[in-house]
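Dear colleague,

As promised, here are the two records you asked about, laid out in our usual form so they can be pasted straight into your sheet.

NAME FIELD: protein one
SEQUENCE, THEN STRUCTURE:
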Amino acid sequence: MSSALANTSFDKYAAYGMAVQVPKNEARFLRLLYRNLNGSEPQVLREDFCGTFAICCEWAKLGAEKRAVGLDIDPEPLAYGAKHYLPKLTAPQRKRVKTLERDVLGRNLIKADVVCALNFSYFAFHARDTLVRYFRSARRSLNENGLFVVDTFGGPQHGEPSVDTKRIPGMTYYFEQEHFDPINNRTRFSIHFKQNRAQRRKRAFTYDWRMWSIPEIRDAMLDAGFSAVEVYWEGTARDGRGSGRFTRKERGEPCQVWVAYVVGRK
């Protein structure tokens, strides 16, 4: 069990990391994606809506030439990452990770080979013109042959209130869709945690999202100027859950819940 969760205090960021994130896999996926599409090695990653910038830290571990920049407007998770994740890096690795308390819609943002917006963070943009504006900004920030990578999810299960649960060391994780409006695809999700023999900690994180579909994301990227947009669909494991393996697909398959990456090529 994580030391942050082993005592009576509750660390929502540590719990979130255990339940939701696999930053090492994300960093490796982004690297492999770039290498497969371009036949060369990416150097600079920009993690938008980076929160605790865990992916940035894992990126820096992939090689001495790897540099990462994380952008977020919330100082709290940035401070958490600086306290809990940066110290786990070597001194040279720490020098290659930079964070900025900055809006992803701002001007003169850091250039990168790969720009990513993961954990569905860009769902915070409810209007299509804002989404296209962000995608256009991300494209401008890419170096030659750069990739812009976002993730998305959906399926019939998310057309109405629902709760997904998962056991993690020392507690149970709940991902609850509390509300869904089918007219504008606006929805409210909350994350709750319940430590063993403790009261449930409600709404550790809450999200007011617009559920963007893959066709909407693809069309917005093309309108933002990307030369091509590709979809990487998650396979299905034997138990019926997502396998964690993503392959490029032209067609999906009907699923109650699905997850995919959408990749814009500059």
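NAME FIELD: protein two
SEQUENCE, THEN STRUCTURE:
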Amino acid sequence: YYVGHDALLSDAVERLEKYSKLLISGIGGCGKSEFARQLLQHMTVSGRYERVAYVQYHDSLAESYRTAFPDLSSTSDSAVIEECRRILESNGNSHTLLMIDNMNQTISEDAALIQLCAYGCDVIITSRLVALDGFDVFAIPSLSPEDSQTLFRIHMPHAQTGYDHDLAQLC
């Protein structure tokens, strides 16, 4: 279920087309990953991308690539990163998108991240970080109280009317 940030999609599309590297940033639970999926769906329906690589970030960029691309021939971290870059850039003039979800390391913790800004494909990263060198930052705001209530009702369909009153007081 997607609630609350529909109006932001057109702005994110424009910024991705302009900068090609987009960091979707926000607090935990604000909908960064779902927003990125909605953006991806919009961009693929529009025909912009012929290929999309989805990478769930875990520990490091190299480790994340190993999980996302299980048939890699390389073994060292640097060789894995270069092999994946070649794969992502091998589509000629066709547009390729790399989406990295839940990136939680800084460049000082994972030096390979600095290379992403030079990739010859579009890159979307979701993260709680507020900045990443070479990326345009797209901040996702927290949901409004009304949207929070809607999301709660969607996920808790058995909730009684009394819960609505309690939830409204919390928000």
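A couple of things worth noting about protein two: The beta strands are 21-25, 51-56, 96-101, 122-127, 136-139. The longest helix spans residues 32-45.

Best,
R.
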